[in-house]
Amino acid sequence: MSTDRIEKSILLRVSRSRVWHAVSTAQEFAAWFGVGEIDGEFVPGASLSARITHPGYEHLTWNVTIDQVKPESFLSFRWHPYAVDPTVDYSDEPTTLVEFLLEETVEGTRLTVVESGFDSIPLARRAEAFGMNERGWSEQIKNIARYVTS
Questions:
Q1: Could you tell me the CA-to-CA distances from 14 to 4, 21, 75, 140 in Å, in that order?
Q2: Average of pLDDT values for 133-137?
Q3: How many CA atoms lie within 13 A of 126 on its CB side?
Q4: Which residue segments constitute the domains of the chain, with CATH numbers given?
Q5: pLDDT in tens, 35-69
Q6: How confident is the model over 85-134, as pLDDT tens digits?
Q7: What is the pTM for the complete model shown?
């Protein structure tokens, strides 16, 4: 089992365009991901932030930098994984890369979410960041499934 990479995949019985809009537009992403209003667009180089709305984490801010956008097929961003201690400055730590890959299938769209780069996270918090994000992506894949099929 890799400790550097989390991968989750799900078949969504909706069009690739529907999934793409949920992944790549600020308003829709915020709705299923559990953050408040995102000020900005998902374009390469954009630094985006929003208040987290997930119960117990409302005191935190979601911060990402959009890496790549390939319409209808791929979006990636970088962030500091499980950066939940408001007294810690994570800005000097390496980031992980989160990728959303969309593949059209006969049944709908296969969405694969990959987060990689945990082996670069400081050892003192690496295992917890990996474990929490492993569980988090399991929930997020369900969230987007509910969102795009509702």
A1: 31, 12, 18, 17
A2: 97
A3: 14
A4: 5-149 (3.30.530.20)
A5: 999 999 999 999 999 999 999 999 999 999 999 99
A6: 989 999 999 999 999 999 999 999 999 999 999 999 999 999 999 999 99
A7: 0.96
How far CA 117 is from CA of 73, 97, 148, 149, in Å, comes to 21, 6, 28, 31
Does an H or E element contain 22, and which?
Answer: helix 16-24
Q: How many angstroms separate the CA atoms of 73 and 101, rounded?
A: 6
Helix (H) or strand (E) holding 18: helix 16-24
* Type of residue found at 14: V
DSSP E strand stretches across the chain? 5-12, 47-51, 61-70, 74-79, 96-105, 108-116
